[in-house]
Structures are given as structure tokens and as C-alpha cells.
Amino acid sequence: xxASIQGRIVxxxxxxxIIEQGGIGYRLDIAPSAVSSLPPAGETVKLYTYLHxxxxxxxxxxxxxxxxxxxxxxxxxVSGVGPRLALQVVDTLSPDAFALAILQNDIxxxxxxxxxxxxxxxxxxxxxxxxxxxxxxxxxxxxxxxxPAEGAAENEVSEVIAALMVLGYSSSEAHDAVKRARPVEEDxxxxxxxxxxGQLAIV
Length: 203
Description:
With 203 residues, the protein is α+β, with helices and mostly antiparallel strands. The chain is built from ten helices and five strands; from the N terminus they run E-E-E-H-E-E-H-H-H-H-H-H-H-H-H. It has helices at residues 32-37, 66-75, 83-92, 95-103, 107-110, 118-134, 141-144, 154-166, 171-180, 189-201; strands spanning 4-12, 16-21, 24-29, 44-54, 57-63. The longest helix has 17 residues, at 118-134.
């Protein structure tokens, strides 16, 4: 796998850049915000890269930082997220901002990304909360220092809220149902989700 490329910028466009290294010109798809941060054509630059290979497509994606590359890779572990949507996330949110949004269940922040609706954002929270904590992406200090939630662990509460939103409930309905389910420390995602669904059934 090509981990990075350092070479001369031959050409830049809004969504890609061509870098020449060793007599070979590499075309890298790159976030528009990253393109604007690169030096002009003729200058040398180093980009971290990700080689995307599928049965009927192949593409090389470039990133100005290793954290952006790590975020791009992590995003593609989410159901329904491909390289184009992952690149859109990288273009819209910094790795720190994305990590904060996931760990704080900030659906509004995630839906700022073009192509992500509320259900998609909730799915990201549900699938990435644990993965993010184990990934190479640095967790923001504000999250690391946050006080734990009362009752059930904050992680279980966030996952249940995200699961309810994936099922079609609004953010306010999901938060209210979890609150009325009275989380306790012994709760797992399954036990808390079952009680929260029970609360929604009797409304």
C-alpha cells in the first residue's frame, strides 16, 4: 500500500492534485479545503495517501495530515459510507471536531456534512463510538476530561440514543425515552434499549 507521496506539484484542481515523483505523475483525489492549503504548482509537498481498490474501481486519495487519513479510513467502516462521503466529512470537519461530535452524540454537527442525514449521523455514532476510542485519532481533551454520566455509562446511553434515532425516532424523543428508562450502572446497550423502547410504546 502507498502510505505517502512526496514530490513536485504538477497541477491542482478543486478536487484533485497531480504530484510527480520519480518520473511518475500520481493523481490524488483530495478535499477542496486541503487543495487550498497546498503550495502552488512547481513546489514540493508531502501527502499521506490511501489506495482505494474495489472490483470495478481504483482511486488514490491524499491528505495533508495523518489524522485526516486515519479519519478517512475509520469512516469507511460505517455501513453505507464510501470514499466520496468519507472525503466529504474530512473536508467539512477536522478530526478533533468529528471525534467530539461522535463522543457527544452531536447529531446536528454531523449533519452539517453534505450527504449525511439524521439517520446516517445516528448510525455513525452507534458504529464509531467504541472504534473511535480505540483508533489512532486523538480524542479531544474536553471529552477525555468530561465527567461520567450518572447511572449507566455514558457510552451505553449514547449508543441507545443513536440506535433509537436509526429506528426513526427524533433526538428529543430518544433522549426523553432513555431518561424515563432510568439508566443504571449495570445496564448494557441491550437492556437499556429494551426499556427505552418500552417507554416509547406507552407514550
